[in-house]
Specification:
This protein is an alpha+beta fold. The protein contains 17 helices and 22 strands. It is globular and about 65 Å long. The model has no long low-confidence stretch (mean pLDDT 94). Bound molecules: ligand MV4.
Length: 494
């Protein structure tokens, strides 16, 4: 096992990785930008090094600096978290060349999975069902027209260098194809530095379901079931859950085996996700996310596994600690991403100072956060404050517990999306599990529902902002009591 790990990331995921390190007796090294000097993760680490100015390009994306600090601190491995350098094959290669363990797949696999059309081809070879479409990039208009006619409209044009939904264009008919092709190629060039695009059949309002996989350096691979991530807004996931209400045990076994086989086929080392669209009872492969994901806790809650520990074991050359037949899905878990954003103002980011902070707890609740009272959220990075995860014996209990926890959660000082989550947790379609990727756009009453919830909370909010600061402790207790009453009123109204 490695003795010291550098965490090339910030915020809640840096702390998540350091917690695994601490439990495993591994020393942790934080790297931080000048904007993160006072962040919790820099204090939590055993050692911390400043790596540059606030912009990510000058700090968290600086490959040379990461290698330098790893050497200086004597870290034997680097955990990249998610985002930033996590899926950068150049970073993985630099680590490989310097004899530092990159905690993730090899640079070869990262390269392959980063090229979305190549990944599609590879997965097809591995026996994974893919959306009808092209196995290479568009070479000329005639070819695009022929393929689109063959698979039928609507089609979707995707940048091969992309992923995550950026730059994708839906095309309704042949008349729109030429223009859409041109504009998608232009966006692909400016965003990804590569004009390559490919075409797939467009599925309308599918569910977004992904399988968690783990592969070790001995050629073993297992799956930890699925997560449903259909509740998203502008390609930003807001709520994730496991298991998906749409997946039967037989489908889970079947698709999970296909996903694990594909991981073995490409020689996948570490934790990863195979992303699918689910439509009319069928799965279609979309892309591989070659990293630990934001939403990994819901899988941990239902399987009892520690995915980050497994990542570290795998990178240390150890075999998987568990066999497929020993994985059990127990109960149901939901995650709400708590963001510093204003749902009443088109969800614009609202960085700033957290004047008061009280996070929920109790049975079945997990909060992964990187903030504290009087912490100022810097404007330079992702506005996620924390992740609130609720576990229950079934989906209904998880929802009830999530509602309860959302009402306990107090963040004073910055606007945030907790009221929006409260509205979703009361939404009838959500409660019934009738989800799809267009859920938020379709449920047009959500904003009005949220406004009603916020109106109900106004007197309390005013009381809180006055009380907090002076009689902080008393105010916190009073707040929980008042919110509990409000929650009860809200429930009896339904
Ligand atoms: C699709 C699709 C429908 N059909 N592919 C979005 C995230 C990225 N991983 C893939 N995405 C999609 N791929 C096919 N063949 C629908 C989405 C999608 C989407 C696409 C464009 C604009 C908004 C979207 C919202 C959710 C899902």
């Amino acid at each position: 096992m490695v003795n010291k790990i550098l965490i090339a990331n910030r915020g809640e995921i840096a702390i998540r990785v350091m917690r695994a390190c601490r439990e495993m007796g591994i020393a942790s090294v934080a790297v931080y930008s000048e904007a993160d000097r006072e962040a919790l993760f820099t204090k939590y680490a055993d050692e911390a090094y400043c790596i540059g100015p606030p912009p990510a390009t000058a700090s968290y994306l600086n490959i040379q600096k990461m290698i330098e600090v790893a050497k200086e601190s004597g870290a034997e491995a680097i955990h990249p978290g998610y985002g930033f350098l996590a899926e950068n094959p150049k970073f993985a290669r630099a680590c490989e060349e310097e004899g530092i363990k990159f905690i993730g797949p090899s640079s070869r696999v990262l390269e392959l999975m980063g090229d979305k059309v190549a990944a599609r081809r590879e997965m097809k070879k591995a026996g994974v069902p893919v959306v009808p479409g092209m196995d290479e990039c568009v070479a000329e208009f005639g070819q695009a027209r022929d393929i689109a006619n063959e698979i039928g409209y609507p089609v979707i044009i995707k940048p091969s260098g992309g992923g995550g939904g950026i730059g994708m264009t839906i095309v309704a008919n042949e008349g729109e194809l030429a223009k859409a092709l041109e504009s998608t190629q232009a966006i692909a060039t400016t965003t990804f530095g590569l004009c390559d695009v490919y075409i797939e059949k467009y599925l309308s309002n599918p569910r977004h379901i992904e399988f968690q996989i783990l592969g070790d350096s001995k050629g073993n691979a297992i799956h930890l079931g699925e997560r449903e991530c259909s509740i998203q807004r502008r390609h930003q996931k807001l709520i994730e859950e496991s298991p998906s209400a749409a997946v039967t045990p037989a489908m889970r076994t079947n698709m999970g085996e296909i996903a694990a086989n594909a991981a073995r086929f490409v020689g996948y080392e570490g934790a990863g996700t195979m992303e699918f669209l689910f439509s009319d009872g069928r799965f279609y492969f979309l892309e591989v996310n070659a990293r630990v994901q934001v939403e990994h806790p819901v899988t941990e809650m239902v399987t009892g596994m520690d995915i980050v520990k497994e990542q570290i074991r795998i990178a240390s050359g150890l075999p998987l600690g568990i066999k497929q037949e020993d994985i059990r899905m127990n109960g149901s878990a939901i995650e709400c991403r708590i963001n510093a954003e204003d749902p009443l103002n088109d969800f614009v980011p609202t960085p700033g100072k957290i004047k008061s902070y009280h996070s929920p707890g109790g049975t079945g609740i997990r909060v992964d956060s990187g903030v504290y009272t009087s912490y100022t959220i810097p404007p330079f990075y992702d506005p996620m404050i924390s992740k609130l995860i609720a576990w229950g014996r079934d989906r209904n209990e998880a929802i009830t517990r999530m509602r309860r926890a959302l009402y306990e959660y107090i963040i004073v000082g910055i606007k945030n999306n907790i009221p929006f989550h409260k509205a979703v947790m009361e939404n009838l379609r959500f409660v019934k599990g009738e989800l799809g990727t267009h859920f938020i756009d379709q449920e047009i009453t959500l904003i009005e529902d949220m406004k009603r919830i916020m109106e109900r909370e106004k007197p309390l909010e005013e009381k809180l902002s006055h009380l907090f600061g002076e009689k902080r402790k008393i105010a916190a207790i009073a707040a929980v009591a008042a919110i509990t009453q409000m929650h009860r009123r809200a429930q009896t109204k339904q």
